[in-house]
């Protein structure tokens, strides 16, 4: 009895031919914006989403789409951070901390603030690779009245090293497995499963955090960021 790897691949990822790269674009651009602009993004699996997008596009052989998605998601990430900066500039961070919150607590907020205070410009660049800081950094930078041009430049540099890197690693990494179809099928399913489970768990965690009362302890004055 022989195992038909080609048939296995068709069963495993054939549905992606119906979903198509367009669905990948919609999901990726929506989630990247949310993660970079809104506090709910703190709980979303942004890194694994970008990697999974590359893997799924590789199953289509969508070479041009992978590069174009990288560029589009980069723009959306920068725009999202600008929105987060504006929100922080207008409202500060006083409504973020939750009394007894496991993630949205004053200790985490202060750690993120201290990180930006110490590193300034380079903290915004590095924040792209630190999941929870990635969402808090624009809000804190806005509240601290960091120079908007410096912020935009820093977040753009960070985005260049974050978005295309993960999408293209997923794309070309999966492409290397074309000679082993069943391994590629497993990788596609694992990537999608991790994203789906991570997203569901993230929204659950967000709802749990937001049910807690706001920590009304007054915020310390935010000095102007470097």
TrEMBL record:
Q: Which organism is this entry from? A: Amycolatopsis thermalba
The family assignment reads: Belongs to the DedA family.
The cross-references to Pfam families, in alphabetical order and at most eight, read: VTT_dom
TM annotation in the entry:
64-88, 151-174, 186-204
Indicate where this protein resides in the cell: Cell membrane
Q: Does the keyword Signal apply?
A: no
Recorded protein name is: DedA family protein
Keyword tags: Cell membrane, Membrane, Transmembrane, Transmembrane helix
Q: Which residues form the VTT domain?
A: 44-171
- Cross-referenced PANTHER family, in alphabetical order? INNER MEMBRANE PROTEIN DEDA-RELATED, INNER MEMBRANE PROTEIN YABI
User: Does rRNA-binding appear among the keywords?
Assistant: no
